[in-house]
Amino acid sequence: MMSVLIDTVAWVRVENGRILCARPRGKDVFYIPGGKREGRETDLETLLREVEEELTVAILPATVSHMGTYEAQAHGHPDGVVVRMSCYAGEYRGTLAASSEIEEMAWFSYADRPLVPPVDQLLFDDLRASGALA
């Protein structure tokens, strides 16, 4: 069986022991904000575009740092479809707001881990282990 890889980039924003998550319209789970690269975009270009599209803020490129890369079975896809999520932290300017493609956003603690897909749960585990996530 051939496996399929979905390559994504995510913005990890933790404040007061909680991580910012967003639920796209028509989806039943929350995700770490971000998405798939378009064409030959770099991780940084994808991150800047996706976060602005979803949450209407501008990530400050000079503050971006890689936090880790995770892979897991893709939520809602057939077995063998794997999502790779390259995670970055970074400061932003603007006011966080859900765009038209986002149904709602929320600040999650570790107790909310079941509400996110498997790849995001790996990030939750690491953030909990490091003491960043309450």
From TrEMBL:
- Tell me which residues make up the Nudix hydrolase domain: 1-129
What keywords are assigned to this protein?
Hydrolase
List, alphabetically, the Gene3D superfamilies matched.
Answer: Nucleoside Triphosphate Pyrophosphohydrolase (3.90.79.10)
* InterPro entries cross-referenced by the UniProt entry: NUDIX_hydrolase-like_dom_sf, NUDIX_hydrolase_CS, NUDIX_hydrolase_dom
Query: Which taxonomic lineage does the organism of this UniProt entry have?
Result: Bacteria, Bacillati, Actinomycetota, Actinomycetes, Kitasatosporales
- PROSITE patterns xref list: NUDIX (PS51462), NUDIX_BOX (PS00893)
Task: Give a yes or no for keyword Hydrolase in this entry.
Answer: yes
Name the source's superkingdom: Bacteria
What is the official name of this protein in its record?
NUDIX domain-containing protein
Q: Which organism is it from?
A: Streptomyces pulveraceus
